[in-house]
C-alpha cells in the first residue's frame, strides 16, 4: 500500500454536505465553489483578470451544482463534494452517499439549531462513524445563537462538538470570525464577496471569551494528543501544528466535531471552513481499507487504497447529460481505471469500455486519462452499469455493496 506521506492521496478530501432544508446548503456550496474556482484560476493562469472581472464572468455563467459530485481545489487540496440528500424520504440515497464519502460538513442554522430532520441524517452518519465538521450558518440573522446551537448539537446529536471559531458579534452586528487555533480575527471584505480577508489580532472586547473558549478546546482535544496534554498541563505555549494535529486525530476517529461559524449569505467564515476541511477531515489514506465481500461465500475482503493494487470501484450514481449521454459516477477504492481501458461489472459479468473519464467542476468538465484509488469521477461509455455495481479488472472477485438502485437515473439540466 502507498503509505508515502507525500502521496497525492493525502491531498484528496471526499466530502458530503448535510443540512436540514433551508439551513443554507446551496448558498454555502455555491460560495465554496466560488472561492475555490477563483483561487484555482489564479493559480493556473495569470491573465491579469481582476476579481471583479471574474465575478462578472461567474455571474453570467451561473455557478451550477447539478452533478452528483463536483470537484474543486483549495490551495494544494482537491475537494470532491458528493451530493448528499438531506431529506428523510431519501434515506437509502443518504446511505449510498455515506458509502462513498470520507467526511462531511453538517450545516446548521444559528436560529433554528438542530431540526428534527437533521437528527435522522446525522444518526445515519453516526452509524457509519463519518468524521464531521459542523458549520453554524446565518450568524447575521435575528435570533442567531451560536452557543445554544452548539449545545443542541451536543445534546440532541450526542456529539462532542467544540468551537474552533468564535463569532465576533451576531445578528446585524456579526462582523467576522475569530480562529481559536491561531487566535487571529478575520474580517471578510464585502467588496470582494468576502474573498479578501483582513487578518488582525483579536479586538480587546472579545479577548477574554476567546481565551476561555480556547482553553476549553485545548482541554478537550488534549485527550487526542499526549504532546498537547503535557504542554497544556505545564502551562506552556501550544504550537498551532500540535493543536491542529490533535483536532485532526479527534475528528478522524469520530470522537470530536470541530464547530465553525459564519454567514454564507454575507460571505463571512467560509474560507476558514475550507481550511478546516483540508486540515481536519480525513484523506482516503486516513480512512484506510474498505470492506468488500466475496460474491459466493460472502467472506469479507479488505481493499486497500492503493493506486497500484487491483482495480475495485463502486458505481454510485447514474445521470444523463444532454450533451454527453450516460454518465456513471464512480469511486475507485483500489487500483487505477484508465481511459480507453475496459472493466468487468462484478454483478453481471459484463465487460465494458471506458471511452472518457470526466472530472466535474462547477463550470466545466475536465477530461482525465485515469482515475486513481481514492478519487471520484464520472465515466462515459458504459451502457449497463447501475448504481451499486462494483467494477474490477476481471481478475479479482469482490463486491462492495449489496445495494442496487436501478431507478436512480436522473437527467441533468
Ligand atoms: P438549503 O435549502 O439548505 O439549500 O438553503 P439555501 O442555501 O437555499 O438557503 C435558504 C435561504 O436562507 C435562502 O433564502 C438564503 O438566501 C438564506 N440564507 C442562506 N445563508 C444565509 C445566511 O448566512 N444568512 C441569512 N440571513 N440568510 C441565509
Question: What can you see in these coordinates?
Answer:
The chain is an alpha+beta fold. The chain is 29% helix and 29% strand. It has 10 helices and 24 strands. The protein has helices at residues 25-44, 51-61, 91-100, 116-127, 146-156, 204-221, 226-233, 240-252, 270-280, 284-287; strands at residues 12-19, 69-74, 77-82, 103-109, 132-137, 161-163, 165-168, 176-179, 184-188, 197-200, 257-261, 290-293, 300-303, 312-321, 325-334, 336-338, 342-345, 351-353, 356-360, 365-368, 370-372, 376-380, 390-392, 410-411. The strands form 5 sheets. Strands 14, 15, 17, 18, 19, 20, 22, 23 and 24 form a 9-stranded mixed sheet that branches. It has a 7-stranded mixed sheet with strand order 2-3-1-4-5-11-6, sandwiched between helices. A hairpin with an 8-residue loop joins β9 (184-188) and β10. The radius of gyration is 22 Å and the shape is globular. The two termini are 40 Å apart. 43% of the residues are buried. Bound molecules: guanosine-5'-diphosphate. The site of guanosine-5'-diphosphate has 16 residues, from α1.
Q: Which short descriptors sum up this protein?
A:
single chain; 413 residues; alpha+beta; 9-stranded mixed β-sheet; 7-stranded mixed β-sheet; globular; disordered C terminus; binds guanosine-5'-diphosphate
